[in-house]
UniProtKB/TrEMBL annotation:
This is Mitochondrial ATP synthase regulatory component factor B. The lineage of its organism: Eukaryota, Metazoa, Ecdysozoa, Nematoda, Chromadorea. InterPro entries: LRR_dom_sf, Peptidase_S1_PA.
C-alpha cells in the first residue's frame, strides 16, 4: 500500500524536498524485492533496466501500485529472459508513460501484438521494440546496441569496428603519439602521458583523411587521462557500460608501426584487477600507439581506456614499459570509464602532463 499523504507529510515534515527523478539500473542485480523501494518515489520520471536478469513481470506490480504510476515518463528494458507478455498488465497502469523502449526480450513472442496492446492502453506513449538484428536506441544518448550473443568473434569485431571507426583518432601529443575516442559533446578522451598543456591545441587524425585540431580542457596526471574539445567532433554521446573480470573486450587504436588512415581493432580478455584495485589488467598486450585507445565490450559499449602496460604506475614508467619495450609487454592496463568520469568530476585539472 502507498503511504497516505497526511502520514507522509507528518513523517517527513523536517526533511528537505529532495526527490529521485531518474534511476539507471543498467548491469545491476535488482530483483523483485528491489522494486519495492520504487513504490514511494514521488518524482520518478526515468527508469532504465538494461542487462538486468533478476526480475520478471511481477516486479512491475510495485510501479503500477505505487506513486510512479503517475510520474514515470520513460521506461527502458533491454535484454531480460524473464519478462513476458504478462508485463502488459502492469505497464498499462503507468498512465504518465510517454516513452517505452524494449529490446532483446525473447519471452515476448509477438512483438507487433504486444506493441498494439500497449498503444491502445497508452495512446500518448511512443513505443520502440526493434527486432533483435536491429540497433536499439536509448533516451539521452544514441546507443548502438546489437545482438552480439548471436555473432562469432569476427562478426562482432567487424560490427564494432564499422560502428566506431570514425570516432577513433590518432592523437599527436607533445611527447608521444597515441589514440583517442570522441565521447560526444565535442570532446575527445585520451591518455595524458602523451604530453599535453592546458588550453593548447593538438592535432587529431581520423578516417577518410580527417584532420582537425582540439584544445585541451582537462588533464589528470594521476589518472592519466586528458580531455580535448573541438567543434568538429561529434556531439552525440557514446553509450558506456562496466567491464568485469573474465569478460572479453575489443580495443581500437592507431599502431605507430603501421602507416594507415584508419584504426585497427584487436580482441582481449580482462584477466584480473591491477594491484592498485582501480585498473583492470587485460591480455594480450598492445602495440605502441594504442595508448589512449577505447575499449569496447562485446555489445559495442565503451567500457575503459587503455593507459599503459601492467607495470605502469607513473608518467615515466608508462613511457618506459609501454613504449620503449612494447614487445615485452604481455598485458595492458585499462582504466574503467566509471573511474574516469569520477576523476573528472571530483579533481581539478593539472596544468600539463609534459
Amino acid at each position: 500500500m502507498i503511504e497516505k499523504e497526511d502520514t507522509y507529510v507528518t513523517r517527513w515534515a523536517n526533511a528537505k524536498p529532495i526527490y529521485i527523478h531518474e534511476v539507471d539500473a543498467t548491469d545491476s542485480a535488482i530483483g523483485y524485492d528491489g522494486f519495492k523501494f520504487f513504490r514511494e518515489c514521488r518524482e520518478l520520471r526515468v527508469l532504465k533496466l538494461n542487462y538486468c536478469e533478476y526480475f520478471d513481470d511481477e516486479a512491475f506490480r510495485h510501479l503500477a501500485y505505487g506513486r510512479p504510476k503517475n510520474t514515470l515518463n520513460e521506461l527502458e528494458i533491454i535484454t531480460n529472459g524473464s519478462v513476458s507478455e504478462g508485463i502488459i498488465k502492469w505497464i498499462t497502469e503507468l498512465k504518465a508513460l510517454k516513452r517505452l523502449h524494449l529490446y532483446l526480450l525473447p519471452r515476448i513472442r509477438n512483438r507487433n501484438a504486444f506493441i498494439r496492446q500497449v498503444q491502445l492502453a497508452l495512446p500518448q506513449c511512443n513505443i520502440t521494440f526493434p527486432e533483435s538484428d536491429k540497433f536499439g536506441y536509448g533516451y539521452n544518448v544514441k546507443q548502438y546496441i546489437f545482438s552480439s550473443s548471436l555473432m562469432d568473434d569476427k562478426e562482432r569485431s567487424e560490427k564494432i569496428y564499422n560502428t566506431w571507426k570514425n570516432r577513433v583518432f590518432r592523437v599527436e601529443g607533445g611527447k608521444l603519439n597515441g589514440s583517442g575516442i570522441a565521447l560526444g559533446r565535442k570532446h575527445l578522451l585520451t591518455a595524458a602521458h602523451m604530453g599535453f598543456k592546458l588550453k593548447e591545441r593538438y592535432s587529431l587524425h581520423g578516417t577518410n583523411d580527417v584532420h582537425l585540431s582540439a584544445t585541451v580542457e582537462y588533464i589528470n596526471r594521476k589518472a592519466d587521462v586528458a580531455l580535448l574539445k573541438s567543434d568538429e567532433l561529434p556531439d552525440t554521446e557514446i553509450e558506456r557500460r562496466n567491464l568485469d573480470v573474465g569478460r572479453n573486450y575489443f580495443l581500437m587504436g592507431y599502431p605507430s608501426d603501421v602507416v594507415e588512415s584508419a584504426p585497427s581493432i584487436s580482441k582481449g580478455i580482462v584477466e584480473n584487477f591491477h594491484a592498485d584495485q582501480i585498473h583492470l589488467v587485460g591480455s594480450p598486450g598492445a602495440r605502441y600507439g594504442y595508448s589512449g585507445g577505447p575499449v569496447f565490450d562485446k555489445g559495442g559499449a565503451l567500457t575503459a581506456l587503455l593507459v599503459g602496460g601492467r607495470t605502469c604506475l607513473t608518467q615515466d614508467s608508462t613511457f618506459k614499459d609501454m613504449f620503449t619495450q612494447p614487445t615485452q609487454q604481455n598485458n595492458v592496463r585499462l582504466l574503467p570509464m566509471n573511474v574516469i568520469e569520477w576523476a573528472i568530476k571530483t579533481s581539478k585539472s593539472d596544468e600539463d602532463s609534459m
